[in-house]
Amino acid sequence: MVKEIMKDVIFLKQPSEAADKNDLDSAKDLLDTLKANASGCVGMAANMIGVRKRILAANLSGRYVVMLNPVITGHSKKTYTAEEGCLSLTGTRQTERFESITVEYTDEHMKKRIKSFSGFDAQIIQHEIDHFDGKII
Ligand SMILES: [Zn+2]
Fold first, then answer.
1. How many domains is the chain partitioned into structurally?
2. Can 128 be counted among the known catalytic residues?
């Protein structure tokens, strides 16, 4: 179900908790909401629909991906300055991102996965994981 976008910065600054199989409905809502906002958004963290769980949905190189409890287990030494926007905020801001990352996560079938991402895909994931820690650009 498509949900409203949370824009309350006080709420967004609170850290999110670990997700489990009981949160798969929220993961589906998050994906629906991301798709409904596809024109201006490539990734969302669950707290952006008011759910403080470590779930993200993202459009990675044209493919929709859901991740529960993603953790960056490795990253490139190299970083770069990115200009990012966020559906929960107005305008864009500069932030530092790793060029590539390795991520461990649980997928929507509750299977553990390890994958590497680079460039824009890696940037999206880093942005959403920051949301879990209450960090907004
Ligand atoms: Zn954001």
1. 1
2. yes
